[in-house]
Structure to design on (537 residues):
């Protein structure tokens, strides 16, 4: 009961701090981690240890599924080469670099222990990455690469982690067997995720138009996918990602608009609470981690932690720039690559600097066994946990706080044709609608109705064509002369909507109409206010 009260208290802090972060335009993961640090040192507060099983089984699947469901499969497939270079090769390169540093510079770190530390701190975190880059207006491809990397790299790191832990506990390690295990675990994880995704797609097609059941199934699918893969000792992470990508790809044909609207609200709330809870819990772990270092020098271990943090950040920067140079060279030739470098180096720098570690690294460190197969204590366990925490804290705080500043200094702007793409889609829909009215509209409808619909869409086509031409010519949103008039009209309609709401509330209190009638009228007002808030007159 006492722990439940603490959890409620943490949730209250989470909601309040997130509201402050949004108002001040601060990266909320950083603010929540710092708040967790402060709360963790409050006297007489019960020790809330972060259970690795809770992270891997309860928290990780829905967060990965949500991130995958927001990722476009087409964009993911287009950027698969840089995503694979970051999520697989960079993870193993970081693991090796950290292992070499730990083995030669930190006393007592044998190779197997050093590789465990490297595997723990190598993967940037999907939760941290999405929280840091949110609202920065980054290039669409940059966001796809960062989110795609963070979805896949957990599997690479966890497979390397398990191999290293097995080497420590059993005393044996065979490189070629580890390589085959990686291919098997990753490939079968993807296959299981696809199969689970197809099963849920078939279920959604059978259910149809039942938003409550369909939304409940979306909450269930990441856990079934993860647990099914883990039951066969395959990659649950890749299974969840595959399921999320598949269902998101088929969502337009299997979900009704009511389900999409309801599910999106439910998932937004769930992910918000899980992400915030995770970041606060990361900060809360520091007191217990420091207490476990009673036999070590805190200052010395802090220095080693800063050294490992520097290695992880530096390795990523070097690898990303080298990889971008090589891909550009192979694609265009050396001369063209040098000439076009100025067009890409800003985005490359953002990708290189966005390497924040998070809950996966901490959970992996905490999941280290307490004893070996022979019953002796697992060597350097507390040191690995502390060093991992320092890397998480440094990457989250230093890179998290500096990334928005870096984006402003680089003067990175969203793609110029973003507004043009939206209007081109609207133009395509309007043009096709005109053809439908002319050729397939029922002949028994009055001519006046047909002419009115046709004239409305003809005006829309002319307006969109004009706006697209302006955007492509100037690279800026068109400014119409009647914008002020439209704004004034929208404001007055919002006032009318608010008046109607007040009247509806009065009628509700008087009890003159049934609740069903009042709810229907309220729903229509909600839809109307949503359209008005989006600028649709």
């Amino acid at each position: 009961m006492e722990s439940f009260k603490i959890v409620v208290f943490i949730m209250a802090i989470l909601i309040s701090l997130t509201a402050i972060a949004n108002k001040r335009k601060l990266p909320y993961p950083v603010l929540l981690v710092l708040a967790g640090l402060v709360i963790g040192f409050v006297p007489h507060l019960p020790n809330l240890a972060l259970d690795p099983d809770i992270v891997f089984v309860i928290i990780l699947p829905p967060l990965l599924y949500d991130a995958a469901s927001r990722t476009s499969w087409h964009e993911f497939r287009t950027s698969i080469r840089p995503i694979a270079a970051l999520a697989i090769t960079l993870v193993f390169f970081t693991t090796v670099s950290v292992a070499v540093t730990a083995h030669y510079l930190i006393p007592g770190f044998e190779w197997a222990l050093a590789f465990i530390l490297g595997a723990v701190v190598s993967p940037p975190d999907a939760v941290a990455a999405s929280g840091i880059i949110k609202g920065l207006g980054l290039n669409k491809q940059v966001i796809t690469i960062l989110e795609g990397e963070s979805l896949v790299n957990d599997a690479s790191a966890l497979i390397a982690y398990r191999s290293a832990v097995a080497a420590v506990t059993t005393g044996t390690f065979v490189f070629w067997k580890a390589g085959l295990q990686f291919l098997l675990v990753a490939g079968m994880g993807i296959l299981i995720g696809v199969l689970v995704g197809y099963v849920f797609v078939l279920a959604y097609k059978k259910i149809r138009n039942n938003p409550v059941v369909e939304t409940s199934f979306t909450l269930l699918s990441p856990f079934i996918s993860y647990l099914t893969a883990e039951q066969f000792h395959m990659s649950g992470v890749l299974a969840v990602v595959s399921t999320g990508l598949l269902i998101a790809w088929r969502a337009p044909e299997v979900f009704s608009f009511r389900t999409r609207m309801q599910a999106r609200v439910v998932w937004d709330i769930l992910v918000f609470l899980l992400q915030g809870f995770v970041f606060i819990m990361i900060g809360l772990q520091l007191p217990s981690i420091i207490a476990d270092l009673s036999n070590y020098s805190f200052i010395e271990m802090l220095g080693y932690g800063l050294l490992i943090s520097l290695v992880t950040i530096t390795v990523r920067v070097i690898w990303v720039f080298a990889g971008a140079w090589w891909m550009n060279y192979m694609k265009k030739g050396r001369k063209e690559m040098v000439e076009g470098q100025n067009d890409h180096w800003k985005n490359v720098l953002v990708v290189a600097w966005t390497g924040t570690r998070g809950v996966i690294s901490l959970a992996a460190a905490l999941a280290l066994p307490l004893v070996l197969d022979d019953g002796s204590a697992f060597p350097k366990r507390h040191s690995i946990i502390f060093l991992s925490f320092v890397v998480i804290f440094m990457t989250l705080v230093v890179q998290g706080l500096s990334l928005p500043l870096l984006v402003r200094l680089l003067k990175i702007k969203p793609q110029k044709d973003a507004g043009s793409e939206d209007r081109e889609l609207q133009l395509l829909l309007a043009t096709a609608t005109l053809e439908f009215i002319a050729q397939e509209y029922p002949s028994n409808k009055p001519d006046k109705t047909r002419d009115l619909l046709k004239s409305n869409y003809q005006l829309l086509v002319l307006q969109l064509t004009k706006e697209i031409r302006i955007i492509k010519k100037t690279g800026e949103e068109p400014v119409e002369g009647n914008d002020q008039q439209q704004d004034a009209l929208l404001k007055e309609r919002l006032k009318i909507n608010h008046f109607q709401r007040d009247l509806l509330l009065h009628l509700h209190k008087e009890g003159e109409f049934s609740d069903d009638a009042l709810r229907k009228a309220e729903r229509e007002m909600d839809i109307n206010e949503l359209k008005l808030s989006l600028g649709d007159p």
